[in-house]
Amino acid sequence: MILNKDTAKKTAEFLLQIKAIKLSPSEPFNWASGWKSPIYCDNRITLSFPAVRNFLKEEIAKLVEQKHGKPDVIAGVATGAIAIGVLVAQELGVPFVYVRPEAKKHGRKNQIEGHLEKGQNVVVIEDLISTGKSSLQAVDALKETDVNIKGMVAIFTYGFEIANKNFKESNIELTTLSSYEHLLEQALDSHYISEKELNTLQDWRKSPSEWNQ
């Protein structure tokens, strides 16, 4: 869900400007999953640009409060959303924890780092949503501590149907600052891509696992 189209397009504009998102329909990227993709997204790059970093921090914090009220705790999904999660927690003046993909093999063997109490209201922060699988694994780990997951807020989503299905089945409300549709709209408006490239990028989103094989 996108709450504000202007924010969605401004976010997309920033991500393209700093090359956190790269579009290359003619020379696709290889994802770790084996998919060929005309887009590559690394939102950790935003941390190196103070103006962009502050924009994301403020907009995500506003989104959290608009959708879920002020939570007791912000939880970031490791590793991509740890830094932005800390910034959002600082903006809201609430505690922060982060969730590892799996429990550590040594020490206290924590999967969740930080202090949580039963019954607390938690909003989860992510940087990027593809299938949603790793994000929802973090949610499952949090649920085991008997906290209330109010929802998840992310910077960007590809909007894959499998992700929509996974979030619906998990009964987790996902809200994002921007999305693939808004990215393409902004890229076309700013002449970053042509109409022909737009068609290629739209085709990829329809069937990413089979595209360009």
Please tell me how large the radius of gyration is.
Answer: 17 Å
CA-CA gap between termini: 31 Å
Give the tally of β-strands: 10
Low-confidence regions: none
CATH architecture assignment name: 3-Layer(aba) Sandwich
Number of domains: 1
| Average predicted local confidence, pLDDT | 93
Q: What is the CATH third-level topology name?
A: Rossmann fold
- Percentage of residues in strands: 15-25%
How does the major sheet shape up?
6 strands, mixed
CATH class: Alpha Beta
Report what the structure shows.
The strands form 3 sheets. Strands 7-6-5-8-9-10 form a 6-stranded mixed β-sheet, with helices on both faces. A two-stranded antiparallel sheet has the order 1-4. It is of the alpha/beta class and 213 residues long. Helix content is 40%, strand content 22%. Helix 4 links the parallel strand 8 and strand 9 (148-157). It has a single domain, classed as Rossmann fold (3-Layer(aba) Sandwich). It has 7 helices and 10 strands.
SSE topology:
Blueprint: H1 5-17, E1 21-23, E2 29-30, E3 36-37, E4 39-41, H2 50-68, E5 73-77, H3 82-92, E6 96-99, E7 112-113, E8 121-129, H4 133-143, E9 148-157, H5 161-170, E10 174-179, H6 180-189, H7 195-206
Helix pairs in contact: 1-2, 1-6, 2-3
Provide a brief overview of the structure.
This protein has seven helices and ten strands. The chain is an alpha/beta fold.
Keywords:
10 strands; Rossmann fold; six-stranded mixed sheet; two-stranded antiparallel sheet; alpha/beta; globular; single chain
